[in-house]
Write a structure and sequence with these properties.
The chain has 2 domains: about 50 residues, no CATH class; about 120 residues, Sandwich (Immunoglobulin-like). It is built from 1 helix and 8 strands, in the order αββββββββ. The longest helix is centred in the N-terminal third of the chain and has 23 residues.
Length: about 180
């Protein structure tokens, strides 16, 4: 019998506490709030939401490999080099960003001592420059920035012996 009374009293206390908590989230006629009626303009409750948005960036490339244009005899020993259309790189970022290109060493069956300076890049039709900074955006205003990369390769009669040549170029996106 004592257990039943204690259980009923505990259950009633829980219902009363829930009713009080519910009344704190509402207005208009419960507890100390004025009742809504023809003289009132309504009932307003507010809630604040918040979030921290991190720096978000995406780097996309149209192709992971580019076959350089095969040189002809006339292409050796000239400063003009041989042009090749490369990949398009798209950057999407919600913050300032910098895109850089970093070459590794040449590999393959040819002369692996070929200098990495024998390949240059052109960004969006500008002049050919050494591999390095592709582009920066101090104030991104579009959902994406495209960088068309083209390459220019210099060939030398003495050092560019027959064989295959490969060069890994790492494109790195940083968004401070």
């Amino acid at each position: 019998m004592k257990f039943t009374k204690l259980f009923v009293v505990t259950a009633m206390s829980a219902v009363a506490a829930a009713s009080t908590a519910h009344a704190q989230l509402n207005c208009g006629g419960g507890g100390t709030e004025p009742a809504l009626g023809p003289a009132t303009t309504g009932c307003v409750v507010t809630s604040t939401v918040s979030n921290t948005v991190p720096t978000v960036a995406r780097l996309e490339i149209t192709t992971a490999t580019t076959d350089l244009t095969t040189p002809l005899a006339a292409d050796f020993g000239t400063a003009a080099g041989v042009n090749t259309t490369g990949p398009k790189i798209t950057v999407r970022a919600n913050a300032n960003h910098t895109l850089t290109a970093s070459p590794a060493a040449w590999t393959g069956t040819g002369n692996n001592a070929k200098p990495v300076t024998d390949i240059k890049m052109q960004v969006n039709g500008g002049g050919f420059i050494a591999l390095g900074t592709v582009g920066t955006a101090a104030s991104p205003k579009t959902p994406g920035t495209d960088y068309q990369i083209d390459y220019n390769t210099i060939y030398n009669w003495v050092t560019d012996t027959p064989g295959t040549y490969s060069l890994v170029i790492s494109y790195t996106l940083t968004a401070p």
